[in-house]
Amino acid sequence: MQDILQPNRDLKHEDFERALIVINPVAGDGRSIGVLPDLIRRLTERGYLCTAITTTGAGSATQFVKLLGRGSSVVICSGGDGTANEVISGLMHIPEEQRPCFAYIPAGSTNDFAATLGIPKRTKEALSIIESGISVPIDVGMFNDRYYAYVCAFGAFTGVSHTTSQTAKNLFGQLAYFAKGIESLRSIAPIRTRFIINGEEIEEEVGFCSISNSTCIGGVIKIKPDLVELNDGMFEILIIKYPPDAMGFTKIFNAIASGEMRSEYIRIYHASEVDITILEEIPVDWTLDGEIEKGVRHAHIKNIHSGIRVIVDGSGEKGIAIKPGAAAEN
Fold it and tell me: Residue 66 burial by CB count (10 A; 0-12/13-18/19+): exposed, middle or buried?
C-alpha cells in the first residue's frame, strides 16, 4: 500500500485502512507508551489511519475494542498479557466476518502469551513483525461466559503475578515468578476437584490445574511445544496432584524446573472442552490470563476454534506452535 502516500496525490478518507492501537501505559516498567510514535509512523507509511487510546482501568480495553474495533483492519495491543486478554475479549464481541486481526507488542514482565506466539520482547523486533508478518488463526478460550486468550487456572502459581512485587518482576523476570510459585505450592491446601474430560469423570486432590493454549503458564510452567498447537481446537489440561510428602513436592519442582513435566503427580490431557467442579465448601479463585476471577465453584470451559487471527513472524524462525496447514495471510 505504500504507493498511496506518493507526493502530490489527492488522498481521500476511504483510501486508508484503519488501525486501532490500545496501550496500557503502566504495563511492565511503563515502556509500552514509548512505542506509540514509531508505531504510528510505520503504520501511516503503509496507508493506515490510526486511532490510539490508553486504557483507563480494568475492563476498559475490552469496552474500547467493542466500541471502536469494528471497521478496523487490525487492533494492536501494547501491554502485558492482561491487556491482551481484554483486547481479545473485545474482539470476540465483534461479528466474525468483521473481526479485525490482532497484533501484540509485549510490554509486561514475563509475557507468556507473546512467547507462545513467537513475538520477541524487544520492541523494535515486535514492530517489525507487525510490518512484515503474516496473520494466522488461533483458538480462543471461553470460561463460563468470559473469554480468555491462553490460560485459565486455579491453585498454586495463580496468584504469583499479583503477589510478586513489581520490583522483583522488573529485576528478575521469570526467576521471581518461579520462586514465588514454589512458595505458593507449599503453602496451599489440596483442592478436591471433579473433572469431566473427554467423557471421563476424574476426581483428584489438586495442587494446581490449568486449561491452556500456551507453552508458557504463569511465568513458571513450560509445556513442550510439541504438545501444543495453537489452532487445533484443543486445550492442554494440566493437573498437578497434591503430593503426600516432601519427596512428592521435590519431584514436582524438579519436573517443572527441567521443563519435562514428567512425574506421577502430573497429568496432561487434550480436549476441546472440560467441566470442572470444586468439591470444597469454599469456592476457589481462578486466574484468566493472569487476571483474577474470584470465588468460582463450577466452570465449563470450551475451545473456540480459530477464534481470532493474530499477526506473527512469517519467516518460520520463531517456532510458533501452529499447524503447518493453517491458513496464513500477508
Answer: middle
